[in-house]
Amino acid sequence: MSLPNLKLISAGAGSGKTYRLTQELSALLTEGKVKPAGIIATTFTKRAAAELRERVRVKLLREGMSAEANELKNALIGTVHGLGVKLLKRFAFEAGVSPQVDIIADQDHQRLFNLSMASAISVDDIEQIEALCDRLSLSKDGEVYDWRKDVLRLVDVLRGNNFSSADIQNSKEKSWASLAEYLPSVDDGLSLEQYTNRAKIVLTETIAALKNNEADGTKATLSTISNLNRLSFTLKRGEQLPWEEYAKLSGIVKKVGAKSRELVDSLVELGERHVSLPDFQDDIRSYIGYMFDFADQAIQEYDSYKKARGRIDYTDMEVLVLDLLANPMVQETLKEELDLLIVDEFQDTSPIQLALFLKLSRLAKQSIWVGDPKQSIYGFRGAEPRLMKAVMDATGPIKPENIQRQSWRSREDIVHACNAIFVKGFPEIDEEAVVLDPVRTRSGGKFGKPAEGQELAQTSAIRHWHFNLEGKGRYAKAWFHDVTAKAIGEMLANPPMILPKDGTEERRLIPSDIAVLFRSNRDAEAFAGALANQGISAAIARTGLLATAEATLILACLKYLLNSSDSLSVAEILLFGSRLPLAEIVERRLDFLENEQQEKVGPKWGDEHGILEKLRQLREETNDYSTNELINILLERLDLRRTMVAWGEGVQRLGNVDELRRLAVEYEDQCHRAHRAASLPGYLLYLDSLQRGDADSQGAGERPEAVNILTYHRSKGLEWPAVIAMQLDQSPREDVWGMSVVPEQEHVDLDAPLAGRWIKYWVKPYGRTKSGVPWLEAIDESPWKEQAVAEEAAEETRLLYVGLTRARDYLILPTAKPGAPWLDRVFARGGGTVPVLDPNSTDAPFDWKDHEVTKFLKTWTEPRNIPGAEAQLLATQFIVPSRPGRLRFEPQGPDQAWLLDRYAEVKSSEGSSYFTPPDIDPEVNERIYGSAIDAFLKGDYPTLPSEIRRERAADMLKAYLPTTPVPVEYLLDHSTAFKNTLTAPSGVRHGVALTATVGGRQVRITADWLIFTKEVITFYRTVNVTRKVFEEQHDQRALFYAEAALLKEVCQQHYGTEAVLGSIHLPLAGKLYGVVG
Fold first, then answer.
1. What angle do CA 14, 339, 394 make, to 5 degrees?
2. pTM
């Protein structure tokens, strides 16, 4: 497959990749060679997409091309997932999907897949696989092996390579066949029972012989006897030994003294024969088969789940888009419209994404792929450098003008040192694609860059810290962490000069300018503890959010709102919220339990504390609040942030609080996507599931006073003034076991890059035992091992390249006694002389061409126990000195207490009857009947024809009382009598809303009836209660009087007259009660 329209741009670390992309895209738009609507640009992250779009837009505006800048919104610039969704929506009919693509969010994918896997795998199969884990020594020391993680990893690889069920079965068969080549032939005449019986006899005889051998009393032999006794007892109990134990027997001759070696020959022979057992080989084949079968079943079950609900995930989306691009109509449409395809970070694409980009490149008029093969470090996510190399080979050598040659990031010492190291480290890559020319030099001048200040210029950018252990013996990893943390503290006490990114003035180094890089998250978290011991804050994304004091306090408050009888939550609130000593809390709790046992009446435990009183008030107010709202109101009402900051590490604690709030929103979004109700108990269960899965990540807590700690992988794309490259003594991970993608042919077919490949999965049946077994040693000499070593060497070289090129001003290389084997291995790939770092000399092989690079060397000799240092707590700034709490504002409208107080002296007359209502059926609801009377009175006119009045009354009764009939005459007679009270009016209005300011309150009140005469205005205020209720419930009646008095005062204001009379109207009683006062 030729790719004549594809331009590859090689952009090394810090060489201005985004700038080059901006220039390329802007130039094509400016020259009119592409239209904004004809651009597809994919980036690795949404942030990178937004940056690219904005940079191009600004560039176009500077060129005076405002129309093109505005049209840039029509370009498809985003991640590959965003691009795929837009293509599916546009070609939904051709793809056979709904235009409203319902994609399963990443947060939900794993949970839903786990449910699918759980329903696909039977209980019997689970029992079988867990028994295999025991026999193959995958489960060790009582810890059950999590084989499900292996299935999930296998599923990710299978789906990421678009493997069908047939491909999965083919991989299963080839995996076993490829491993079986190194196993001896099966001895069909030897059963497991026979072998076990023979083992019992040989163990018994050997133990006796060793015990009777008085010539050998060595510690090694005595230890071996003890171990053999354990194995013998296990077999005598009828239990089966793991295969690892038999493998160890084959090398037991090294575990006994010289005078006992002849006595263990039978055990050695026994151990060597286990490999020929049918049961042994069946266990290996069965485990491999189960892995592939489970993966296939889980994928099918997950597909069924998604199809039943009309949903897809992002891997489905990539497959659908890949199939879509094979559609002739879609191809024709895109050929006409697609002017330019841009692929950023091409080295990090997965195989299926690469296939997708290749198809789009054939449809686009031009394609630009930008990246750096030296930074392809995401193999664990599916990226395959082999496929990317095939694309580069197909396009021919990268043209010199398409290689970014300047390093805009790092000082010249760092650039030259990296040139010297990685020209050796990447012998397979042309030198011109590795070497960079520094823009930042001591003398300045390049591209207008100023010269470095005197202090900065006199300091080498390469620093070698070497630590010696005081005394004899080997050092522990924790010691190395401690001494490195101490060295960081010393550097911060006398900080060197740096030049901030995009800055023009140099300044002193501060903690947040430092990044410490590790190979694993576990080591990174351990180093955070070492920094803390030296009084230095650390910014690190780590787990354990729910174990922090701030999370404990917030969750205790939430649980108390849920259940005020939760005594543990009360204790946590008192401990963290009220700062009571733990001993006092326990003592008070015991006193309370004693009183409760004696049935003494008293307040609930903890009621006397103000924070619990506030929580009780919140319980009454927040019944319908969401979890996110609950957390926010707790933080505000209880001023919890100030409480937490007082514990120290304020920024970190506030970051953890924000993480809890983010998780609340994420939980609610998850419920929304799943169409289920979110609740506080559900949120607490959601957090518990995160904690059990070690997924309760804390906030990173990035702040000026904190040193950044992260992994090499996570550092990609970032930069810092000072980078400390840890774990340079790391051993290679040359593991032939596990899973890998195996090509069936040497060359990649770019027309079908996913074809001709299978997945090799090998399980090691001996746990931690790596040698001493002939067939394992044969594998170590095999082409598989050779390939694994080569791939690991290339992978760790790329990872080290990423790590070392993060540094702007200082690259710090810490070592101890073993030196830097990782760096040595990389340098030796191209024939470099090792060791690279000599702890006794400032010389290093970092010179490049005619540029001499001298490292700054500093050594320490430290005791095993490193003394700690106190942390300097910094004040956290708040907007106000103290929280005012919830402020009380006087109500703007009338409330009940105000009404009763203002109109306490108001009374009513005895009341006059204008109509005596007839008795009605006891089944009739009186309140509803009263409402019917009131509504009819407002709509009835006695002057209307009787037929119309009767029809309206019947309709009214039917609407209000459909099941309990009331005679129509009752309403008609009632209305006639009521209208007679409105005699000689000059005007009658009903339902009049009036507003006024009374006693400083804004009042809006309705007059049910207003009767205007020349002398006076009369109002009626309707109260829908019976005469009995009105006259007997004094409190309620007082409120009715007060409301009527308020209406009178409002009428006087509104109409500007004191001549206002009012009455309370009881329709159910047919009475009017005059308001006096």
1. 60
2. 0.79
